[in-house]
Amino acid sequence: MRALVCNSYAGAPESIAMIDDMVAPNCCGAEDVMIQVKASSIDPIDIKITFGYGKNLLFPFVLGRECSGRVVEIGSKVQDLDVGDEVYAAVPYYACGTASECALIPAQWVAKKPRKLSYEAAASLPYSASIVWNALVHQASFNELTTRDKRVLVHSVDNPVGCIAVQLLKAWGGHVTATVSSRAMITAQQLGVDELILHNGHNLDFDSLLSSLPKFDLVLNTVGSILHDSCRVLCREGGLVVSTVASPPASDKYGLFYGSLYSMWLRMKLVFLKVSPAQLLNSFQALND
């Protein structure tokens, strides 16, 4: 089958290739779903993976953290999905990717696609939406009942996580300030942000401008740890900073072989914890339908 793969840790774009002879999955486990992929997305974490994030021993491996498509086969224990369903899915960094003609994905990572979304639009949502939902609902305790009139800074909206976060916060009645680069300004304006703060080399008063604003109940940091301390300064007393940027997994410091063993152990723990992105995706389906 055709697939977009990573064939080394030389980094993008050198390590990325489209191949026609990737082995297709041919056995659907009891709790798996076989999806005929209609659309798939490459996320920032995929680029990190090409540089060695969460190292995997076996090359080539398929990239892509999210996809949409049609169910062609289900395992014997799958209850909420059926053959023919239009679905979308998100997979974690350590799982086989989705940028291929066919993807075999555990049912707990798959949900029915919102009817209003095209395959292409749906394929751009699941992974980043899961990150946003975890940050806002599970870490910050924000929801449709608690967000109204809360002041939130989204830092920044130059990425999928920031764009999705703004739309969810506005739907819940929050007051959203966002930082944005000039290249993303038009998109940010279309999202309905209450206040936009431009950050680029021409805006020398960026920090002072942010500091002059009323303090925030929540600062959502989608940029990285380098901004964590400055984000804390912008919070009111009792406010919260939540970062959505993935840190290198602990397994990376152990090298390729021992790091892979550690990753296998960590994955087993996550399975036993029953982490279920499908629950998050079903929540977004309700919002879109």
From TrEMBL:
This is Enoyl reductase (ER) domain-containing protein. Residues 11-289 form the Enoyl reductase (ER) domain. It holds the Pfam family ADH_zinc_N. GO terms for molecular function: oxidoreductase activity. GO terms for cellular component: mitochondrion. SUPFAM superfamilies: GroES-like (SSF50129), NAD(P)-binding Rossmann-fold domains (SSF51735). It comes from the Eukaryota. It comes from Daphnia pulex.
